[in-house]
Amino acid sequence: MRKFLVFSFLIITFILAGCTTTVNKTTPTSTSTAGMIEPQTISKFGDIPVPSGFKLVPADSYSFENSGVRVGLLKYQGRGDSDQLINFYKEQMSMYNWRLLNVVEFGERMLNFDREQETCIITLQSKGGKNVQIVIALGPKAQATKKAIK
Predict the structure, then answer these.
(1) 3-class DSSP state for residue 64?
(2) pLDDT tens for residues 64-96?
(3) Per the count of CB atoms within 10 A, which of 16, 38, 90, 124 is most buried?
(4) Domain architecture of the chain: domains with CATH
(5) What is the pTM of this model?
């Protein structure tokens, strides 16, 4: 009788699990319209989105995480329109509480973001045609030094 109850419980669990859907609550959703860029579901740093279709270049990338400190230089290759990518980062980064400081456009396009203890610089480099390299540089903010009082 006990084996039957355990078996029944497992069957019911599998049936119910198959009928449910899961939602990743840590990833903000964006409204999708024609021509909009969607973020990847998985990225190296969960709070820095990467456009769908862009692949990490491991040989040219590094990252380090320790208790409270994150540092990284991540390079991604893909195809996209620079104007759409700029808008993608302006929209998506604000969803993760990153504040846009400025956008520099001269050949390359660079977006500077910050938040409490970190800064993030995203550079878009055209590699001919629609080929684009995205470089994400993440690091801690510089700490203000206090002058010694004599």
Answers:
(1) strand
(2) 999 889 999 999 999 999 999 999 999 999 999
(3) 124
(4) 36-140 (3.30.310)
(5) 0.69
